[in-house]
Structure formats: C-alpha cells, structure tokens
C-alpha cells in the first residue's frame, strides 16, 4: 500500500536537514519511509495509515505508534469518510455484500472449511426434520460428536495413507463388532466377576475383564484393516485408525449408559454424565485405541517381533483402561492422572517412532 508513496527528491533534501521530523512506518516487520509528519498525517486522513500503526523516530530510533508521534508534534488528523453511507455501499459493491454469482457457480463445494463448518454447525439442525425418538436420538447425537472428534483427529493425525472411505468403513465395522460381542459374548470373560469385589481385588476385574475385552474389540478392526491392506501401513496411520475405532466404541458405550445408568440419575447429574459420555470419555477410548494401533502398526512392519508387539498392543491400553475404571469410583484424582498418562504415552510413542524403528531393525 505504501510502496508507491516514496519521498520525492525535494522531500529527501528536506529530510537531510530536518531528520528530527521524519518517521519510519513499520508494518509486518518491514519499515517504510522515512516520511515527514504532515505526509504521515495525510496518509491517516486518507485511510492509508492507521493511528495504531507502529512507527519509529528517524533520528532517536524511539519506537511507538503513529498516534503518539503525531500527537507529540501537534498533529490531530481525522479520517475523511468516503462520502455518504449510500456512496460507501455503492463503492463496496453488491458482489461483496451478497456474492450471488460466487454462490451459483458452486465453487464453494471445494471449500473444505465451509463444508466442515456446515457439518459441525448444521447436522443436529437437520436431524430436527426427522421424527426420531428413543434410542435413535441418543445414537444420532453420539454420532454427531463422533464426527466432530473424527475431524479433529483427521486434522492432527492423518497421513498420506488415510482415506475418508476407509475411516467410515472402520468406524461402522467397529460398531458392528461391538454390538455382536456385547450382545452376550462378553460374558464369557469370567474376570468380569472381580469388578464386583472391593478394591484392590477389583483391579483384576477391570483390567482383565473390562480392559482386555473392550480393547480387544477396538483392536479387531485394525487387524482386519492390516490384513486387507495392499501396502505396508505406517504405524502413524494405524494410530489414526485406532483413534477412530476408539471413538466408534465410545459411541456405543455412550448410548448404552445414557439409556440405562444415566437415565436413572437426577436431571443435573444425568445432564453432566451424558455430556461426559459424548465428549471426554470417548476421547479416552480413542487414546487407548491409538496406542493399540501404534503397536499393531509396528508388528506388521517388523514381523520378527509380531507376538510381543501384539501383546503390547492389547496389554498397555487394557492396563490403562482398567486402572482408570478401578480408581474412578475409589479416588477419581488417580483416574485423572492415568488419563493424562494415556495422553502423554501416545504422544511420546509418536515422537519416538523413528528411534523405535531403528531398534527393531537391528
């Protein structure tokens, strides 16, 4: 904006003898000028400079704002309006006020930000059009939050191998496996019995019963994905898919609790528990699924260590999961610590991927 307004020869001569009245303008870490105060004041009046633009005295090097230097030297410029309101609107133009042509040409379909905003902001509003009720309401709302989590994970964890279609297939495959196993097969794990025992015996039930069963459910879709893959899948890619498998499990568990346990609580408690089941708790399931995906990924890149890596893929999330559930009703602050350790573990694993790869290559 200022490049075309360099001082004239006369101004330069004037500047040599009057450097105490010259000001540099600083924008985006670049300096322009120097300019005399009256030129700077005129730029302010024309709207080319702002009073809070950064400035520097050409002689002393003192920094401040345009407003400060002009006020010190007796200048109080006022911006000249570009005509009346009607004239200003005409100058702006109807295409900028209501960009009808840009909407018609459908280029907005290529705007990822717009589509994300529409999905996040309007999905539940669309659901209001349909006469759904009961279990479907809870499931639809849970899916809504799952989509939000999915976009979050896609933004932060996707790799070149990640595909949206594969993500959707894995999500609903996890849902299918969850419904099949938790329709009765989960009762085959007799360690569930220990969850009814007092602490610390309950640790056995929550780790070997709840933890192992639920993390195995989230692990199965990852094993299917690896088996069907047409190329070696990066561990980071399987971390992403593990996160999505965890979110899919969180949707199922969230709905189950909302229609059973939460429904029996008072209104305030039920409201809080429902929100937790839609946000924070699915996030924890996702973390443990991501850790599982990390080790499954390395197991298939380095088959010599497959047995031990598969054991770690199941054991580490199951232990974290089981300990979190154990202390949730005994000393919740410990559960929060375990949740933080889960976050720290996943990020540390990802940061050490190259070192781990070198170790397995030896």
From TrEMBL:
Return any one Pfam family short name: PrsW-protease
Record keywords: Membrane, Transmembrane, Transmembrane helix
Give the protein's recorded name: RsiW-degrading membrane proteinase PrsW (M82 family)
Statement: the UniProt record of this protein carries the keyword Transmembrane? yes
User: Native species of this protein?
Assistant: Hallella colorans
Q: Name one GO molecular function term.
A: peptidase activity
Establish whether keyword NADP is in the entry.
Answer: no
Enumerate the transmembrane spans.
6-26, 112-130, 136-157, 164-183, 203-226, 238-259, 271-296, 308-324, 330-351
Q: Which InterPro entries match?
A: PrsW
């Amino acid at each position: 904006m200022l490049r075309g307004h360099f001082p004239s020869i006369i101004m330069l001569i004037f500047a040599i003898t009057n450097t105490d009245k010259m000001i540099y303008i600083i924008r985006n870490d670049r300096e322009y000028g120097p300019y005399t105060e009256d030129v700077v004041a005129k730029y302010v009046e024309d709207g080319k400079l702002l009073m809070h633009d950064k400035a520097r005295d050409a002689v002393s090097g003192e920094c401040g704002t345009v407003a400060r230097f002009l006020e010190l030297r007796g200048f109080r410029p006022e911006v000249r309006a570009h005509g009346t309101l009607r004239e200003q609107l005409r100058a702006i133009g109807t295409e900028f006020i209501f960009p009808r042509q840009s909407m018609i040409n459908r280029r907005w379909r290529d705007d990822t930000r717009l589509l994300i905003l529409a999905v996040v902001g309007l999905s539940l509003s669309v659901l209001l059009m349909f006469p759904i009720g009961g279990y479907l309401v809870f499931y639809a709302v849970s899916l809504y939050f799952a989509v939000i989590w999915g976009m979050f994970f896609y933004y932060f964890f996707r790799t070149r191998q990640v595909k949206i279609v594969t993500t959707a297939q894995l999500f609903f495959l996890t849902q299918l496996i969850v419904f099949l196993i938790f329709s009765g097969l989960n009762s085959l794990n007799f360690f569930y019995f220990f969850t009814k025992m007092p602490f610390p015996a309950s640790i056995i039930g929550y780790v070997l019963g709840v933890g192992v069963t639920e993390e195995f459910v989230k692990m199965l879709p990852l094993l299917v994905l690896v088996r069907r893959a047409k190329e070696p899948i990066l561990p980071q890619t399987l971390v992403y898919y593990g996160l999505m498998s965890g979110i899919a499990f969180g949707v199922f568990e969230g709905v189950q609790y909302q229609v059973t346990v939460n429904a029996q609580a008072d209104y305030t408690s039920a409201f809080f528990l429902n929100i937790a089941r839609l946000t924070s708790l699915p996030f924890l399931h996702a973390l443990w699924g991501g850790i599982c995906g990390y080790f499954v990924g390395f197991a298939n890149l380095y088959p010599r260590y497959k047995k031990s890596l598969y054991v770690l893929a199941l054991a580490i999330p199951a232990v974290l999961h089981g300990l979190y559930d154990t202390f949730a009703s005994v000393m919740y602050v410990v559960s929060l610590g375990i949740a933080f350790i889960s976050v720290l573990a996943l990020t540390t694993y990802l940061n050490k991927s190259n070192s781990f790869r070198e170790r397995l290559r030896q």
